[in-house]
C-alpha cells in the first residue's frame, strides 16, 4: 500500500511539473524598440518645456520682486519691510513647490502616455503565452539568478507587435 501511495505521489508530481511552463520577458527592451516610444518622448519633452517656461517666468518674477525690494528697502518702514520679506519668502516657497510638482507632473504625464504601449505589449504577451502554453511569465530583471533563453518570450512578443530587430 505504501508503494502505491508513493507511486501515485510521484505520478502527480510529474503531471504537475508537465503542466507548468514558465517564461521570461524583458518589457523595457520591448518598449525601447517600439516606434511609438519616440512620439511619447517628444510629447513628454514638449510638456516638460512648457512647465520649464512657467518655472522660468515665476523665477524671473521672484527675481524682479527681490530687486524691487532692494531698491526700495531704504524707504520702507519696518512693518513694510517685514511684509515684503514675508511676501518674498512665500514666492520662493511657491516656486520650490511648483518645481517639485512639475517633476511629479512630468512623471505622471510620461506614465499616462506609456500606458497604451504597456497595454499593447500586454496583449501581445498574452497571445504569445497562450500560443506557447505558458502558465507563468516573469519579468526579466537582474534579480533572476538563471534564465534559460529558450524560454525568453521577448523576441516572440516583438514579432507579434510587428517589430523587427537585428540579431546581435
Structure description:
This protein has 168 residues and is mainly α. It has one domain (19-160): Protein Binding, DinI Protein, Chain A. Helix content is 73%, strand content 5%. The protein contains five helices and two strands. It has a two-stranded parallel sheet with strand order 1-2. The two termini are 57 Å apart. The mean pLDDT is 86.
Distance between the termini: 57 Å
* Cross-sheet strand order for the largest sheet: 1-2
Query: What overall geometry do the principal axes of the alpha carbons give?
Result: elongated
> Runs with pLDDT <50, length 5+?
none
- What is the level 1 CATH name? Alpha Beta
What's the total count of β strands? Answer: 2
CATH topology: Protein Binding, DinI Protein, Chain A
Specify the number of helices.
5
**What is the average of the pLDDT values?**
86
**CATH architecture call:** 2-Layer Sandwich
Instruction: Return Rg in Å.
Output: 29 Å
Helix content: over 70%
- Number of domain modules: 1
- Tell me the major beta sheet: 2 strands, parallel
Estimated share of beta-strand residues: under 5%
What would you say about this model in short?
The chain has about 170 residues and is mainly alpha-helical.
